Amino acid sequence: MAGKKVLIVYAHQEPRSLNGSLKKVAVEELSKQGCTVTVSDLYAMDFEPRTTRKDVIGALSNPEFFNYGVEAYEAFKRRCLASDITDEQKKVQEADLVIFQFPLYWFGMPAILKGWMDRVLCQGFAFDIPGFYDAGFLKHGALHFCGFKVLAPQISFAPEIASEEERKAMVASWAQRLKTIWEEEPIDCTPPWYFGQ
Amino acid sequence: MAGKKVLIVYAHQEPRSLNGSLKKVAVEELSKQGCTVTVSDLYAMDFEPRTTRKDVIGALSNPEFFNYGVEAYEAFKRRCLASDITDEQKKVQEADLVIFQFPLYWFGMPAILKGWMDRVLCQGFAFDIPGFYDAGFLKHGALHFCGFKVLAPQISFAPEIASEEERKAMVASWAQRLKTIWEEEPIDCTPPWYFGQ
């Protein structure tokens, strides 16, 4: 939709991969709609995935006992977080739509994107909601918990053993979905009371 | 057991955390048993969690299209993996027992330990086995797949809201378990045929 801001958080080393193609087609389709599209290309940016003391500029709240969650929250309030974090937080805050584009191997995302989540969205909250396979941890845990309205995930299964035709269909299906993405309704997520709200 | 080699892969920023205490008590108990205990303290080592082209020394197998899984495997066969990876692989290979000690927040492990898994054990294989909460992804996915016999996980729930007494009991229960850890039988994991073997 014209005028909307989109952030694509993208984690893959190879631009010519399926992930790269999915990202590229999203930039094209959304730009064509008149959206402003920003891409955080985590590998290209050499994004730091480690959550360390360096994320806090200046003195720690408790230098005797380093608790990342506490220190990051205090630094956020005092506006003392490292600029690579606040730059990303600004992009998230300004965005009308955020797309996470990453390979769904292993337990769900590359370390560098997990690092982005840990550092930008805030690390350290527990959850125990089943449904890993459809990225349940992401939509119910991190994203919903952080205040996002969450759309259904778009998953391209086993691209490495798919044919070229099938991979093209995966990209086309994503481009097609994006044409009406602004009309989609958020999916049901864990209710706020689950988190004690 | 005297003479056994133990590797503890430890990911926490604060030595005085519960994770730090659990690691410390494991080193003490296992050393007392006469084991040789090696600790890979990932934060202290500043372990690189990113899976990049730098992990391969020299020429790539396919410089036109970077596929991390393929390149890492080829480099492994040619003995051209980066030394921070091969150092860890050597520790794993020599160990009779490997303990992963990390906070179980979010979707299971800090990015830096996921990076260790991605780079040392090998990245890129899919799985869809439920049971996230008891670290099923780890025991059935990564570890079992890589040839480990897997013991039951030891989980200390919600230490941040536990009392000092309760946290001490968590540490004591771990120390107690370690006294007879060599007698434990591996748990049932996904059968090999699941992975096409």
Automatic annotation (TrEMBL), chains A, B:
Primary location group: cytoplasm
GO cellular component: cytosol
UniProt superkingdom: Eukaryota
E.C. designation(s): 1.10.5.1
Name by which UniProt lists this protein: Ribosyldihydronicotinamide dehydrogenase [quinone]
Keyword check for Nucleus: no
Subcellular location: Cytoplasm
Pfam family, one: Flavodoxin_2
Organism: Mustela putorius furo (European domestic ferret)
Cofactor: FAD; Zn(2+)
Family: Belongs to the NAD(P)H dehydrogenase (quinone) family.
Catalytic activity annotation: 1-(beta-D-ribofuranosyl)-1,4-dihydronicotinamide + a quinone + H(+) = beta-nicotinamide D-riboside + a quinol
Name of the gene this protein is made from: NQO2
